[in-house]
Each structure stands twice: as C-alpha cells, then as structure tokens.
Amino acid sequence: MRDSRRRRALLNQIRALEFMAVELNLYLNSHPTDRRALRDYNAYTQQLMVLRNEYQSQYGPLTNFGTAQSGYPWAWINDPWPWEID
Amino acid sequence: MWIYEKKLQYPVRIKNPNPRMASYILSQFGGPDGELAASLRYLSQRYHMPISEAKAMLTDIGTEELAHLEIVGTMVYQLMGGASIEEIKEAGAGVYFSNHDRAVYPSTGTGVPFTAAYIMSKGDYIADLHEDLAAEQKARATYEHLIKLADDPDVIEPLRFLRAREIVHYQRFGEILEKLYEYKNSKKYF
Fold this sequence. Notes:
By secondary structure, chain A is mostly helical. Chain A contains two helices and no strands. Helices cover 63% and strands 0% of the residues of chain A.
C-alpha cells in the first residue's frame, strides 16, 4: 500500500496548510487590517492551490463539483471516504 | 451554500475498537455540548448579527464545527466498527446497540437523542455571544474529560486537536463580543 502512504502524506501537507489558512481566516475576521496576517494568509493560500491541484490530478477530486475535472468513470465516488481507514 | 471536502480536518486512524470509548465520545456528536449543537447554534445566530465581523466569524466557526462533527463521527465509527457483540455487551453499549447496531446516531452515549433545546438564538447579539463563549468552554471541558477517559494515543491525539480548537474559537468570539459592545455603545439612543 505504498500508494496509500503517499496519498496520506500529501493529504497531511494539505491539512497543515489548511490549518494555517483557517487559523488566519478566523484571526482576520476580527483583525481585518493586520497586514502581516493578510500576507501570510495569501502566501499559504497560494501554496495550498498548488498542492490541491497536485492531489486532485493524482488521487481524484476533493470536492463533489467545481474544483477538479474528472476522468472516466466519474471519480468522485471512489473509496476511501474520510471516515474509512485505507 | 456549502461545499464538502473529501478529507478530515485532522486525521483519524484508530486501530483498536473500543465500544465503551465510542459511547463516551458520541456525546460530542449529538450531545448538549457537541459539535452538531455548536454548528447549528452559530449558523442560526449569524442572521441577526449587526456587524460584518460577527457575521463572518459565526459563519466560519459554524462551518469548522461541521468538520469537527465529521472527525467525531469518524472516531465513533472506527471505535464501534470492529467490536464484537461480547465487547459491546461488556462495554455497557448494549442499550445503544439494540437501537442502532454500530451506526452513528446524533445522541448521547446513553441514547438521549439530539435536540435543538441544547441551543439558543435569542435575537440579542450580546446574549448570543455570551452563550457562544460558554459553549466553547463547555466543549473544552468535555474534551478534557474524554482525554482523561482515553488510554489509546490514536484516540487521544484527535481529542487534543479538538480541545485546542475550542480554545481558539473562545478567543475569537471574545474579540467579536468586544466589537459588539463597541457597536452597541456607538449607537445613537433616541
């Protein structure tokens, strides 16, 4: 299951960046003029877009519509789902 | 609208089933200080917020709580998943099993179903934010109780993550409450 390990490693990188992004998102809601936080938010978001594209091109879409095209057959329904251990 | 992302906010990989721990943790799925209550509370209250910071914060934290609901549901699912009938009986989870087998149902571990009576949307932004601050503290306390009850690192790690998020949310809601007081004091009275 080398592929599963690689998939999970990439997913963890995405999680780490999303964690920074959501932290800054909430912080910026109450500090909308903090330029340093805003700069960090934009930098993490840019990295996140790159990694999300990489993940979706290799392992299928992360959202049910609108963020990644699908090969044949429709890839959204593929296992594993988040609650399943792969 | 909402868009679902096919991943957990924090990874959950529990190797050893433990129906007793599952029934303890289920409270954070459908119990009084659980993630469903938190999410519905914030997503209901946001409509009547007078300032944009508060609308954003309730929307975003209410959304993050749904991600936490999924983490908690996953923990219950994995803890119940491989458990034998004997283990379920020994763990005192037989009453739950009789109604739900190993399924994840929004209730407490003793089977009290979820109710909107756990939450309030008062139409008074000061009262609502005070409720939200209390809710985050109650959820933090519940996660600390659960961490004391747990002995498996696979279970403890996600619980620690969830506990830490309650503290961040509490901080952010505190900042919003301050802004709401400023707004209230700046209003003309006539």
